[in-house]
């Protein structure tokens, strides 16, 4: 497998302020400017910094020039990479101060885990350890290492081999990872460890996690703030899994009419949880609406009312009479314990207003006793609103793909979230930079319907410019929520991005357009090159349902990754499913960021099969390019470390302040956008060779 190259900075403090993903990306961009101009001067930095888009458009060139002049009076002076990093940190700090927002505000999804602040919440860490002990204590492999001591840092040592995180993902969404693909040995070599972390990161994206600037090396090092940020998202996804009409139709009781049901379907799970909580608080006579999981819960009164209405048999009258908030919080937790609720927090956490732990606690109360009864009429209406299986699968795929791009908006329900046009404009701007005229776009919340139509009309206009098939399609079709047309448009977006990424590997395509036929030809040629005879006629070929062809393709691009002792003949439905789940996990283990399900392989879903083939092709070509690169010299500031597979890309998060802009070296491949296909970063300092 290809070697892993880390970026070394002589000043250890400076190095600690960035993840390896950030350093590689910044180093690549810095080297690109240096190669163009022969050197980098202070004068080169302002336009360069603006192009990075790392400061949320907070500074223009003149403002950056003014800030830099305080540290670098002579703009003609040459600046080295470490000087550039210091200037970058200075600007980032000033951007944060100007915004007046805490860049490290914590939320489970879109968790802002960066390296400029290394403090971790000990209560959250202890709570996550208790959760892990509870759910993984009986795991055949992990039981030798569990339980962990919540007060220690053993968690950060145990995650270093990747097994724990992979297993935790399967607890959150069972079946996500085929555990046969996890490398489980007491002592793993660097390749095996890196494969586990790559599998973990790609699988985390496939269940809806958003990870900010985190790569496999960060997990190998067990960086506490990054590890906790990832674990918190995985646990949240587990706890909120049932907070949707599809999983819990009884939630229709929270709304009054059919229009409200549609609105409910578009809400984020945590918003539904708040709605559920307020529904019961209103019945209990609590006057103040709860708008968050922090300050509104600090005094414990809302909890007291909620538990009294849900479980009156365990009610303690002293709870509401308590004068001290901490004492009331303790009585609340005692009440919850009598209901058999898991205790995700301590009284101090309620009083301090810990949003993550409060959310986890409320979710646990919901699971234990939702207090919902079903109105038969509403229930039947909710059942009627459910999509067919294929539509649901496609919606899931596109939702996860969009969330992997790192745009500002997090998608909860594709069909609802695209209707104002803004989300689609964000996606278009990500995969085709500069295509959106933001001056003509309206940002949510949008009250005037015609503004939504204007946004969607621009979406359709750009789609036509990109040569999408949009015959008789108008912006109003999106506003009206036409599911068939929305899915068709999203597929064309995803396919366009996928093909552009392959095209951008210029050493392979010389900038020519890549077609489905090119991908088909490559897959057949790759399998044939190993001496195997399997070939497919197209991506609808029924023989693909056995899984054998894709396992042979994966083995062709990386011989050691497929354990043929685990492969079945694919003759029965059960054998096909075993192979399909193994294919997906092996591909993610390599570095492919894919969002299809085993059913898509078994049923030979042409679209999803194409994305899988393209993803493997992209990974293989990038690997060939990496192996064709000349070894970096020490003067370039890089040093070879343990040989690992290509690290997973960063996944941009909610705040562009922490984003590095996403362009990888001179290939113009967007980091976050490349999540569509393959989790690999190329920081080429020379024109790389082809396959």
UniProtKB/TrEMBL annotation:
Keyword Repeat appears in the UniProt entry: yes
| SMART domains for this protein | CH
Domain Calponin-homology (CH) stretches: 122-239, 267-370, 392-498, 513-621
Entry-linked PROSITE patterns: ACTININ_2 (PS00020), CH (PS50021)
One Pfam entry for this protein is CH
Region described as Disordered: 627-691
Q: Does the keyword Repeat apply?
A: yes
Sorted alphabetically, which Gene3D superfamilies does this protein's record hold?
Calponin-like domain (1.10.418.10), EF-hand (1.10.238.10)
Q: Which InterPro entries does UniProt cross-reference here?
A: Actinin_actin-bd_CS (IPR001589), CH_dom (IPR001715), CH_dom_sf (IPR036872), EF-hand-dom_pair (IPR011992), Fimbrin/Plastin (IPR039959)
- Protein keywords: Actin-binding, Repeat
| Subunit description | Interacts with F-actin.
Q: What is this protein called?
A: Calponin-homology (CH) domain-containing protein
The organism of origin for this protein? Hevea brasiliensis (Para rubber tree)
């Amino acid at each position: 497998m290809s070697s892993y190259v880390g970026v070394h900075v002589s000043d250890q403090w400076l190095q600690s302020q960035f993840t390896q993903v950030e350093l590689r990306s910044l180093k690549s961009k810095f080297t690109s400017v240096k190669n163009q101009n022969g050197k980098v001067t202070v004068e080169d930095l302002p336009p360069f910094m603006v192009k990075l888009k790392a400061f949320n458009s907070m500074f223009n060139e003149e403002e950056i020039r003014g800030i830099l002049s305080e540290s670098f009076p002579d703009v003609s002076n040459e600046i080295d990479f470490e000087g550039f990093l210091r200037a970058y940190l200075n600007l980032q700090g000033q951007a944060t101060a100007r915004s007046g927002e805490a860049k490290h505000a914590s939320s489970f999804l879109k968790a802002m885990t960066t390296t400029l602040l290394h403090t971790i919440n000990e209560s959250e860490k202890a709570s996550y350890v208790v959760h892990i002990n509870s759910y993984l204590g009986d795991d055949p492999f992990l039981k030798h290492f569990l339980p962990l001591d919540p007060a220690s840092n053993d968690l950060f040592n145990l995650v270093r081999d990747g097994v724990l995180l992979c297993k935790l993902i399967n607890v959150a969404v069972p079946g996500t990872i085929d555990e046969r693909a996890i490398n489980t040995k007491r002592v793993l070599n660097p390749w095996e460890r890196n494969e586990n972390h790559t599998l973990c990161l790609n699988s985390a994206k496939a269940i809806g996690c958003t990870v900010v600037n985190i790569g496999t090396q960060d997990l190998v090092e067990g960086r506490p703030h990054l590890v906790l940020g990832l674990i918190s998202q995985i646990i949240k996804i587990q706890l909120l899994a049932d907070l949707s009409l599809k999983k819990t139709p009884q939630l229709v009781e929270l709304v009054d009419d059919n229009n409200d049901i549609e609105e409910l379907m578009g809400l984020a799970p945590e918003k539904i949880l708040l709605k559920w909580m307020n529904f019961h608080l209103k019945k209990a006579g609590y006057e103040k609406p709860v708008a968050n999981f922090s300050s509104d819960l600090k005094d414990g009164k809302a909890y007291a009312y909620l538990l009294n209405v849900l479980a009156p048999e365990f009610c303690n009258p002293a709870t509401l009479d308590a004068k001290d908030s901490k004492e009331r919080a303790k009585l609340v937790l005692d009440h919850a314990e009598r209901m058999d609720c898991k205790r995700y927090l301590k009284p101090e956490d309620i009083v301090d207003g810990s949003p993550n732990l409060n959310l986890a606690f409320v979710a646990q109360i919901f699971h234990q006793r939702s207090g919902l009864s079903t109105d038969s009429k509403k229930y039947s209406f909710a059942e009627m609103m459910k999509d067919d299986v294929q539509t649901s699968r496609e919606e899931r795929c596109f939702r996860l793909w969009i969330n992997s791009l790192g745009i500002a908006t997090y998608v909860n329900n594709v069909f609802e979230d695209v209707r104002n046009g803004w989300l689609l404009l964000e996606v278009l701007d990500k995969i085709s930079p500069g295509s959106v005229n933001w001056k003509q776009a309206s940002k949510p919340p949008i009250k005037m319907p015609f503004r939504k139509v204007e946004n969607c009309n621009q979406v359709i206009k750009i789609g036509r410019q990109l040569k999408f098939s949009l015959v008789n399609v108008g912006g109003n079709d999106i506003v009206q929520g036409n599911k068939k047309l929305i899915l068709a448009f999203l597929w064309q977006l995803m396919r366009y991005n996928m093909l552009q990424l392959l095209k951008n590997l210029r050493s392979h395509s010389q900038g020519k357009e890549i077609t489905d036929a090119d991908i088909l030809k490559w897959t057949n040629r790759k399998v044939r090159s190993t001496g195997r005879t399997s070939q497919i006629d197209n991506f609808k070929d029924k023989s693909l349902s056995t899984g054998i062809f894709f396992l042979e393709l994966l083995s062709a691009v990386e011989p050691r990754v497929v354990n043929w002792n685990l492969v079945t003949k694919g003759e029965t439905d059960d054998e096909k499913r075993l192979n399909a789940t193994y294919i997906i996990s092996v591909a993610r283990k390599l570095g492919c960021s894919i969002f299809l399900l085993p059913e898509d392989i078994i049923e030979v879903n042409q679209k999803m099969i194409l994305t899988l083939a393209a993803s493997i092709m992209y990974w293989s070509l990038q690997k060939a390019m990496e192996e064709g690169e000349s070894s970096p010299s020490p003067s370039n500031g890089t040093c070879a470390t343990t040989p690992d597979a290509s690290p997973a890309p960063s996944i941009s998060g909610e705040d562009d302040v922490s984003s590095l802009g996403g362009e990888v070296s001179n290939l113009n491949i967007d980091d976050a956008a490349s999540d569509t296909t393959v989790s690999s970063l190329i920081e080429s300092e020379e024109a790389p060779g082809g396959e």
